[in-house]
Structures are given as C-alpha cells and as structure tokens.
Amino acid sequence: MKKIIRTEKAPAPVGPYNQAVVASGQMLFVAGQIPLNPDTGEIVGEGDITAQTKQVMANMEAILTEAGANWENVVKTSVFLSDLANFGSMNQVYSEYFATETAPARACVEVARLPKDVLVEIDCIAVLNS
Fold it and tell me: Is the pTM for the entire model greater than 0.85?
C-alpha cells in the first residue's frame, strides 16, 4: 500500500510524480526538491548556493511536516550539485538541519545539469513513527 503526500507549502510536481509517497505505512520517500518558491514557482537565489539550499530544505521540511515527520525521521538523503565547488556552502546550510551524531546517511554527487539549471537538488527517505 502507498499513500500520496501533497502540500501547498512546497512546489507542486511538474511532471508525473508526487512530492512524496508513504510505502507500507512507515517509509516516506520524498521526491527531489529544487529551490522553487512554492507560492510563485520561481527559482530562489539565482546563482547563490546558500539561498538555494535553504529553499530546498524549507521545501523538504514542508513535505516532511505534511507526512507527520521531521528531520529526525530522515535516514537517507541524496544531494545533487551542479558543481562540487559548492559543497562547502551547501554543507554548511545542510548541517543546520541535522545533528552530527544522528545525521542520516548521505550521497552527494556532481551532475551535468539539474532542472531549471538550479545549483542543488536534494531528496530524502524517512521512517515514520508508528
């Protein structure tokens, strides 16, 4: 069984996917989030990795909240950067959301291009409390 998660506090999907899906009642899979303002649909922080990462994390937090989760429920993230030179600045913002002792597993890769030519996209998997 799966349950679709949707919130107006994060950008609406622009294709045949959902913001998040809960599988088997406990596993939450959050789609990759880019720095779109959910109210305007515009990219936030053009060329600014710090501003873009903050918006991505705000979008993910809205989806986690809608699903009844928070950052402590996150067990895995994947970070996609258009340039690994932005890793330090992205990581500084990212670290504000996760305590080192309980941070999720993470992959971070540089990709050739991201949707709308943004600098960062992040997705996550969380385990919901029973």
Answer: yes
